Amino acid sequence: MLTSPPNLLTLVRIGLIPVLVGLFFVDGAWARWLACAVYTIAASTDYLDGWLARNLDQHSRFGRWLDPVADKLLVAATVLMLVAFDRAPVLPALVILMREITISGLREYLAEARLVLPVSRLAKWKTAVQMTALGFLIVGDSGPAWLFVPEIGFWGLWLAAILTIVTGWDYLRRSVGHMLAERAANRLQTARGVSPTS
Predict the structure, then answer these.
(1) Is 197 helix (H, G, I), strand (E, B) or coil?
(2) What is the pLDDT of residues 130-173, one digit of tens each?
């Protein structure tokens, strides 16, 4: 249901992305802090919509599709803008974007096979580190000097990239395992004269 509270929050997350992107083109420390606030609100809706979906028992196929799409749009837009404005290192940003694209493709394949892989605890930590690092990078050198905001964002993004490689490899390994198991099962059914789709 499009108008359910979880889906509305997800749509809010998507709607905040153009606002966030627009603030990158505004000069001034206040614009960076406002962009960080917008980003933080958008990122927070990811937790809130999941919490609402569980507690209100309002799960839907549309919501399961829209939520990860919104996440990836937010991350991709933020990373691309930070790199474009020379406020984030290119290599870890590229690793993060490539992982998002790869995992999206794998999830699409697994969804067709009606397989769901649970998110690992390390993947949740990766997301937390990544989101935090992006927030620091948005503020950049507009933050207080004593807090080392750009440095925390820089090294945080590198740590997120390393965790991205580790968790991405784990997801790929588990996905391939499911694919091979499904293929073997289909071959066995074919050998027995049973249609795999029956």
Answers:
(1) coil
(2) 999 999 999 999 999 999 999 999 999 999 999 999 998 888 88
Contact assessment for residue 85 and residue 24, using Cβ atoms and an 8 Å cutoff:
yes
Question: Measured between alpha carbons, how far is 138 from 132 in angstroms, rounded to an integer?
Answer: 10
The one-letter amino acid code at 148 reads: F
Neighbour count for residue 138 (Cβ, 10 Å): 30
- For the stretch 30-70, pLDDT in tens is 999 999 999 999 999 888 877 777 777 777 777 777 888 88
Note the CATH number of domain 5-191: 1.20.120.1760
Integer Rg of the chain from CA: 20
Torsion of CA 112, 126, 156, 166, to 10 degrees: -80
Which positions ≥6 away from 198 have C-beta within 8 Å? none
